[in-house]
Amino acid sequence: MASVNKVILIGNLGADPEVRYTQSGSAVANLSVATNERWTDRDGNRQERTEWHNVTVWGKTAEHCGQYLSKGRSVYVEGRIQSRTYTDRDGNERKVWDVVAQQ
After folding, report:
1. Which long-range contacts (CB under 8 A, 24 or more apart) does 33-37 make?
2. What are the per-10-residue average pLDDT scores of the chain (103 residues)?
């Protein structure tokens, strides 16, 4: 059986894209995308939760993000989830999940 790793996000940028270039000259942009979930709880009260997603964009698309996107803009992102581990300032190993955008 084949597996699928696909994510679609429609949300708003929490900050301007951060674009940088690798030593080989490839552009990479980091985006912070907020998605909102709204529902009514059992007592009839409206509830809302915001989730923040780290998105990485590569190549020409990354350059376009830097040119045309800014904080607050709505964005559509298609990509895949990728995990990574790092060591925080206190020496604890942490694991985070990022979305690597393909569109």
Report:
1. 33/9, 33/75, 33/77, 33/99, 35/9, 35/10, 35/11, 36/11
2. 93 96 95 95 92 95 95 96 92 93 89
